[in-house]
Write a structure and sequence with these properties.
Histone, subunit A; Rossmann fold; alpha/beta; 6-stranded parallel beta sheet
């Protein structure tokens, strides 16, 4: 009989972490982070990483364990998550994946295209091109060698545009050809029960706005100041975390604090919108879907068989 892995998914600032702790207590589980930014130890406040009080009673894994100077990615997370999942079952506990990064969940379930790692020099080169010439320059180049991959990408999605270019530049083979290969799997023969929360977007936006202000009050500016002191390459994922670019501009006196807060709130609201779109169009099998916040759901009323 296949063992079950539970997934608590939904947009940022919806209350997934609190719900996961309740679930863990109910089914003798552990919480495993599946948020792409909560892995970084440098950003506790801006990523709303669960606090010590929240994690005392239930084991939490893959939170704040990666240094921002490392270019962590979905493949590395899948390997780390698979290891924790296997160990969790050996300890007769139930793994509960929690986070809003749908790509991570999809990759763990369905696998990834087996592409060689992209050298850091290539990633730095694509970042430099974006900064000096803009994303349209890369798009026009990609049109010449892999127009099919461009059809599947929003032209505002700089990360994916860069990746198409980097794969071809690094391997000499276009992404659309790599996709013809069989996916690399990380774990197999498990049941995934996804609990998806997609609450009212307007209320979600209001919580995002409030939370960002609260992050500023709790020391997010000082957190980013310490991050900037490390003088990391701007192409690293940690430097693109919501709030980091905006607070960086404030610290550089390019914008005032009110503008910083407004911009930080806006980029996070945009992310919530993209998360709703991603999950609504996802082909992943959803076990239970709620149009409410996790806090509005009585966990006692849910069957976890």
């Amino acid at each position: 009989m296949k063992k079950t892995i539970y997934v608590i998914a939904g947009p940022t600032a919806s209350g997934k972490s609190e719900f996961s702790i309740k679930l863990a207590k109910k089914i003798n589980g552990v919480v495993i982070n599946s948020d792409s930014m909560q892995v970084y130890k440098n950003l506790k406040i801006l990523t709303a990483r669960p606090s010590g009080l929240e994690t005392e009673s239930i084991p939490h894994y893959l939170y704040g364990y990666i240094d921002g100077k490392e270019r962590y990615n979905v493949e590395k997370w899948c390997n780390d998550a698979a290891e924790i999942i296997h160990q969790t079952f050996k300890n007769n506990l139930i793994p509960i994946l929690v986070g809003g990064t749908g790509l991570y969940i999809d990759a763990l379930i369905n696998g990834l295209i087996d592409i060689p790692s992209i050298p850091e020099s290539i990633k730095k080169e694509s970042d430099k091109i974006i900064r000096e010439f803009g994303k349209d320059f890369l798009i026009n180049q990609i049109k010449n060698f892999d127009p099919n991959s461009l059809k599947e990408v929003n032209f505002n999605d700089t990360v994916r545009i860069r990746r198409i270019w980097e794969i071809y530049e690094s391997t000499g083979k276009k992404l659309s050809d790599w996709k013809l290969n069989k996916n690399k799997k990380f774990i197999e023969n498990f049941n995934f029960k996804i609990f998806l929360f997609l609450p009212d977007r307007k209320k979600n936006y209001e919580i995002v706005n409030f939370r960002f202000v609260n992050m500023i009050k709790k020391g997010a500016v000082e957190e980013v100041k310490k991050l900037l002191a490390l003088k990391l390459n701007t192409s690293l994922p940690v430097m693109r975390a919501h709030g980091v670019p905006e607070i960086s501009k404030y610290l550089a006196n390019e914008i005032n604090l009110d503008e910083c807060i407004n911009k930080g709130q806006q980029v996070t609201r945009n992310y919530v919108k993209r998360q709703h779109t991603w999950w609504n169009s996802s082909k992943l099998e959803i076990y239970k879907k709620f149009d409410k916040f996790p806090s509005e759901i009585d966990i006692k009323s849910i069957k976890f068989d």
